[in-house]
Please model this.
Amino acid sequence: MEYKDYYKILGVERSASADEIKRSYRKLARKYHPDVSKEPKAEDRFKEVQEAYEVLRDPEKRKAYDQLGSNWRAGQEFRPPPGWERDFHFRAGRGAGGPADSGIFSDFFEQLFGGRGFGFDFGGAGRTARGEDVQHQVEISLEEAYSGTTRTLQMQSPEVDRTGRVSNRTRTLNVRIPAGVADGQRIRLSGQGSPGMAGGTAGDLYLQVAVRPHPRYRLVGRNIEIDLPVAPWEAALGARVQVPTPGGKVSLTVPPGSQGGSRLRLKGRGLPGRKPGDLYVVLKIVNPPAEDPSAKALFERMAREVSFDPRVGLD
Model:
């Protein structure tokens, strides 16, 4: 029986992380997909990649495999060392019709894991295994993040039958995105990922939400910011003004003596949720044009009569 170097098959180091293993598997699975690949012996290579991933994706199987040591080389004659599996609890095999009769895995895999089940449920011509989790990015507007929305997604999922053959299936999902979802948040949809193998449970679908930049609002975590133009006399004397928010206009008191850049908080007017965010109003003082003679006269009078130097302290 020849030793299988699963790390070499996937093209990763023995220290590779779970994410690195998954990325390499997906790249190789696409390359050797029997339905599309022009590579020599694509189907054999695809099955090799599948087998390597089934071992290295699972922490317990990977730990058991690593216990064999790193001195073996691919193709070497191999026999498991006595007692290598004593730290692992295997279930008994199924016997006839079980993994030894499946033809799906190599003799190396069957010798290590097949007769013991190792957490798999074997039957018929194949074995069950949980489907992969899938990530999908969804872009929404800030208003949709505030109020919630729905999306119709076209998902392509690889399916592996009991003979090990893979095909892609397109399915349509109507997804509800809840109100209050934040930029970068992940939404888990249980059982909506890739189908399981040979009747195994499906993986999960993770929606990665991206909120598009807004021409009026800025989203900071769960808080929302807006620049609010105010007239000089509103800032100086105080005023009651209307402020647009994603939930509709609200009334805001501008305190007398407010300065440009002042931040006023509207509590709970940010993204909704168990702990809703706040809306911060940033004041921007806007001067009226001095083109009209009366307006120009007012500015000239202020320049003469108001003792004010905006650059005090810059010396």
In short: The chain has three domains: 6-128, 134-211, 223-305. The chain has eight helices and 13 strands.
